[in-house]
Amino acid sequence: MLAAVTGLSAPGSRIAVDHLEATADDRPAMRSTADVVRRMGANLTSTVDSPVQWLAAHGWRTTVSRVPALGERYGRPLPGYVDLAASNATALVAAVR
After folding, report:
1. Host domain of residue 76
2. Which of 7, 45, 81, 85 is deepest in the core (most CB within 10 A)?
3. How many distinct structural domains can be found in the chain?
């Protein structure tokens, strides 16, 4: 998908993707989320280990926002019961071509 989008993107194009690092795979919260997603017929998998590196290597300028910091920035801090380790392993990757 990233290769196709890159091939179709003009200078100034923007893309945003969410990325879950493998460090969160064994967290109970992520296992529960993955189970729910599977029951809906989808899967939480990535074919790119590092979308930041992939995008940078293909001409994109990237920024990364971790979910807890992103929530704080928008005045929506995560509730205290949220698994911060899993949340910090989840990122919004935004890029400009």
Report:
1. 2-96
2. 85
3. 1
